[in-house]
Amino acid sequence: MGHQELTTPTRFSWDGPCHEVYVSGSFTNWEQKIKLENVDGVHSSVLHLIPGPYQFKFIVDDVWETSNGYELVHDELGNANNYILVGHPFENPEMKQLDQQFTTRVPLQPEQMWANFPVEVPKVLVRTPLNANIMSKQYVPQTLLQIPDHVILNHFFRQRKRKAYQVNSSTVRYRSKYVTVVLYQALDDGTQKEVPELVDIFEKYQLK
């Protein structure tokens, strides 16, 4: 009997209003589509894949789609696909870094070593309503914001690079509806602040 390669449990998820979702990719040589199970409005399934890079795509109600929750790449034909790098099932990046640093000598203060390894924010958490580029002249309530990724739900976000005021937001979901609350808080310096992106919206919808 030949050597059997170890596989890694890998979850594929699609969040959004739809009826049926399938996933297909290079892990099946694009010859098979796998149905995702619907649990509380989130379609997902765990596949056992051999470690390595894979391109894949979702089939949402018979339409091929890519998800913002995964890295986006283009194949040799120019088609946009999602990309995932499946690691070894027993691979721990932090422990691998430790093995490269230590021999038989234990540092006097090992807790200080973690200060050199800050956790990077996943790219999907950058795609929040606060980072959406919205033109006030194009303000249409029904199509203003895209359906948010499920990974940003129930998180508190603060926008940086604001000198006159702070901007905070949080997004929650109830069934198929999404509600985003944005709080603009002026810095306490005794002057009146104007939020440029809200001026036109306020003038258009204020009571006359």
Can you tag this structure with a few keywords?
208 residues, mainly beta, Immunoglobulin-like, 2 domains, six-stranded antiparallel beta sheet, 2 helices, 12 strands, AMPK1_CBM, Ig_E-set, Beta subunit, ASC_dom
Your description of this structure?
The chain is mainly beta. It has two domains: 1-119, Immunoglobulins (Immunoglobulin-like, Sandwich), CATH 2.60.40; 123-205, N-terminal domain of TfIIb (Single Sheet), CATH 2.20.25.290. The chain has two helices and twelve strands. It has helices spanning 93-101, 196-205, and strands at residues 8-15, 21-25, 34-35, 37-39, 42-49, 52-60, 63-65, 71-74, 80-86, 156-159, 165-174, 177-186. The strands form three sheets. Strands 2, 3, 6, 7, 8 and 9 form a six-stranded antiparallel sheet that branches. A hairpin with a 2-residue loop joins β4 (37-39) and β5 (42-49). The protein is elongated and about 65 Å long. The mean pLDDT is 75.
The total strand number stands at: 12
- Give me the strand/helix succession: EEEEEEEEEHEEEH
The CATH homologous superfamily of the largest domain is called Immunoglobulins
The termini sit apart by 81 Å
Integer tally of domains: 2
Query: Main β-sheet, in a few words?
Result: 6 strands, antiparallel
Second-tier CATH architecture of the largest domain: Sandwich
Average pLDDT level = 75
Structural class by sheet pairing and helices: mainly beta
* Principal-axes shape call: elongated
The top level CATH class name of the largest domain: Mainly Beta
Number of helices: 2
Percent in strands? 35-45%
Regions with little confidence, pLDDT below 50 for 5+ residues: none
